[in-house]
Amino acid sequence: MLFSCGLGTSPKEVQTEIYVRLPVDCINMALSREVQRTIQDIRKRGLKSVARKVYIYGKYGTPMSNLCELFDGKIHSIKYRNVSPPIDYISIQEISPDRIQQISPFDYYWGDVGEIRRWNDGNYQSFTDTEIYQCFKNHFEQGIVWENTKYVSQAIEDIDNGIVREGCRTKSELLERYDRLDQLYDRVDKNGYKRSVEVSERDDPMANSRRKNYLNKQYDEVKVDIAANGEYLFRDGYHRLCIAKLLDVDYIPVVILLRHMEWIARREKKYKNETDSEKINQSHPDIPI
Known about the structure:
The model is unreliable at 1-31 and 60-74 (pLDDT under 50). Strands 3, 4, 5, 6, 7, 8 and 9 form a seven-stranded mixed sheet that branches. The protein has helices at residues 24-45, 47-61, 65-79, 131-142, 150-160, 171-191, 238-246, 261-271, and strands at residues 3-7, 16-20, 92-95, 100-103, 115-117, 125-126, 222-226, 232-236, 252-260. The longest helix is centred in the N-terminal third of the chain and has 22 residues, at 24-45. The protein starts with a strand and ends in an 18-residue tail after the last helix. Helix 1 packs across helix 2 (47-61), helix 2 crosses helix 3 and helix 4 crosses helix 7 (238-246). The protein has two domains: 3-79, no CATH class; 92-271, no CATH class. It has eight helices and nine strands. By secondary structure, the protein is an alpha/beta fold.
């Protein structure tokens, strides 16, 4: 089936028709999926949040970046005018993987980057108690093949039941993906943990699995939130954090998404020397020296 588009402004002008040989059902399916995602985002987070997401995608990952750059200073000055010390809209910090002990209660959402929010603090899940971390630990420290770990075997069962896991629709795709994780582990063990921008696609075993066109590659790092007490909460990047922890990597780059409102207040007091050092770690990376 052909997709036709007529160009022209009047009957007297020459009409040009462009025919694109694309399956219309595939186009409709893709458009329908994106529309459904947008509707779900609006219902869950509101129109303002979705509009902000479009802005961020434009500024940091699409040809719209030049246009968005014009509004950048004004938007940031309004949003953070009362925050002291100022915070970077997109903040990348170098922290020890050991600082990330628990998991954020929120699902991954890039549109949360730079947000300040209040939520019920505490009762977080331990990162090392997750099935995926135990899967990595069993594989790399005990030599259990991926397919025999609880996490991967469950993923294979889900795939057999028609559920897509980690972008994989077949067992062979999933096992191939985990074979590449073996290569990533070996690369980090041999060459150290590097930022995404420091690794070429040719040398990145997981290059085909990275998110595409959603933001600049320099922000494709482990994502975290900051809780009320300043603790880093894991948000996204399970595989890399698992490997970093198992290899005792000293520092990894992380992108800050949410900051708890109470943390912002404590951060300001610490910066102004209005609180004692026992309550807030003197060397917290989110507090300027």
